[in-house]
Design brief:
Two copies of one chain form a homodimer. By secondary structure, chain A is of the alpha/beta class. The first copy, chain A, has helices at residues 16-27, 38-45, 65-71, 76-85, 98-109, 144-162, 183-193, 220-248, 254-267, 294-309, 312-322; strands at residues 3-7, 31-36, 52-54, 91-94, 119-125, 130-134, 169-172, 199-203, 215-217, 276-279, 284-287. In chain A, helix 3 crosses helix 5. The radius of gyration of chain A is 20 Å and the shape is globular.
């Protein structure tokens, strides 16, 4: 069984873009189940046969996640988690509120034994291959022991998903020296140094361009700021480039140059990438940007399916018990 | 009197690049004094007449700043600060260790009355105009009251340096809503909301591309990570673009396209920009990237000189007493 439970109501253009993405994935041979309001989903299904579990409530982006999950037992995200809990699906995909996905996952699936705090692992493009940044927003304020667990979870993630035998782990810090950082980084450095992980030391934001680490470890506040700063900087540079090309290039050249730059824009566009993974809960949960297009939804569902095939969760549970 | 004291020994290619930059500034009519080892500086001066104060000790990038400033009373950075203290210069420029500049500034010049912690304000490019990010590395762990002061210092800085009557202040956070962030951001939000500053609310990393704020306020750890992530992301995208253009563009077009992109690379290159300002100390202190070229050194010296002309420090002192 390799079925992906899709939260049909989560996302800026839900359910339309989500259902369309699910149909695209279905047409590629992936089994999907939609969780959400039957009446709102069906009009977009046309003749495609995808099962729906009717969970009519929706949690919006600006609701308090903990309160919303407590009060809306019939929300689409809870329904998607329940499908995995009941072994009717192997993974959850949602483009809805990250906070709600996190709280729902903990409430319905539970944390993996030994995990102190879950983390969001974001897969990001780098020079030669993808890298993992975690935590990118699940746990804002953490202790050194929690960062050590994040490092172990990120290491296992990169090992299984990227097929790397010994992923290079870096601690995001404000300098390379062991003495750098807040008390959090100084203590975490020592824990990582004496762990069995392939810890390469402190790394900096500029190392996103240097291919020096596979896993970037930090707290959820810093990770979230980093993720969005990358998004902002990429867009800022693109708008500067647009202006500069217009001002400095012979006009007929603009079209081919813009076309040649499109792959880069796509690669750095969070709406088009494979999303992020919730690590530390008893199930595979993939979360995506609220603005995800049907294409991005399809890509995330494909990726979730591959993650299931790789036996990620069972390999993962061992990791935590080993720390 | 409008003389800039230049730390001739600070920087990866000091004293050569620094002295060359000072000569370029001098040739544009700016008075400079060099602080450092006379014997190492003179060979690069050729026939240019620039006064030198002999401070033979050098503080390297990897020394503990506090310990180094205590033990090396004759270091070039201390000498530069002393020139301002003795009213022989109006501002300090250094491309050496940021930590050493910070500690030397506090030790020799002292903090402005009322300032709890100094901050580093970095001037960064944005869509239509420059913006200020502070703190970008002076005070890693701070209290809400300190962030409020950073906001006030950043506001006055943008007002004087960018000629903005009422700079828009944003608090860097992991979401827009008032409820977002760690305890630090939640408490600071309230302080900013009830202050006289033009506080526009929480802003995110993606807002670096949105022209929504003039001043980005955060703690020194997060600010430093943001600064370097911007650097890393810009370089990553440039290397992706290079590859994509090579693969997708007719070869004779590469040269003109690369030329048209050069202004963007320059604008996002921290080695070529105007550096950063140490705010909250009794004097103008400009610090630059260790890898600064002589051109960057010259630009920073010009900028320091303009800052002196604008009467920055006297305007600044009022601000703090008003909070």
């Amino acid at each position: 069984m390799n079925t992906i439970a899709v939260d049909a109501m989560g996302g800026d253009s839900a359910p339309e873009e989500i259902v369309k993405g699910a149909i695209k994935a279905k047409n590629l041979g992936i089994d999907v189940i939609l969780s959400g309001d039957k009446n709102l989903i069906e009009p977009f299904l046309n003749n495609t046969k995808i099962p729906i579990v009717h969970y009519p409530e929706v949690i919006s982006m600006d609701e308090n996640p903990a309160r919303a999950i407590r009060s809306k037992k019939n929300s689409s995200i809870v329904g998607a988690m329940q499908l995995v809990k009941d072994k009717k699906a192997s993974a959850v995909f949602s483009a809805g509120s990250t906070g709600a996905s996190l709280v729902a996952a903990i409430a319905v699936l539970g944390k993996i034994k030994g995990v102190i705090r879950p983390a969001i692992a974001s897969v990001l493009p780098s020079v030669n291959q993808d890298i993992v940044l975690l935590d990118s927003g699940a746990s804002l304020d953490v202790k050194p022991k929690v960062l050590l667990q994040f490092a172990a979870m990120g290491s296992k993630f990169a090992e299984v998903i990227f097929d790397l035998p010994s992923p290079r782990i870096g601690l995001l810090n404000n300098g390379e020296e062991a003495s750098k950082g807040r008390d959090l980084e100084k203590s975490t450095y020592k824990l990582l140094k004496s762990s069995k992980l392939n810890f390469i030391g402190n790394i900096e934001g500029k190392d996103f361009a240097s291919d020096s680490a596979d896993v970037f470890v930090t707290d959820g506040f810093t990770g979230n700021i980093v993720l969005k700063t990358m998004e902002g900087t990429a867009k800022l540079q693109q708008s500067m480039i647009k202006k500069s090309l217009k001002g400095n290039l012979f006009k007929p050249l603009l079209l081919p140059v813009n076309k040649a730059l499109q792959p880069v824009r796509d690669r750095l566009d969070p709406d088009k990438t494979n999303g992020a993974y919730l690590l530390g809960v008893n199930g595979i949960v993939t979360i995506a940007h609220g603005a995800s297009s049907s294409e991005a939804v399809m890509n995330s569902i494909i990726f979730s399916s591959k993650t299931v095939e790789k036996g990620f969760i069972s390999k993962f549970a061992e990791t935590i018990s080993e720390i």
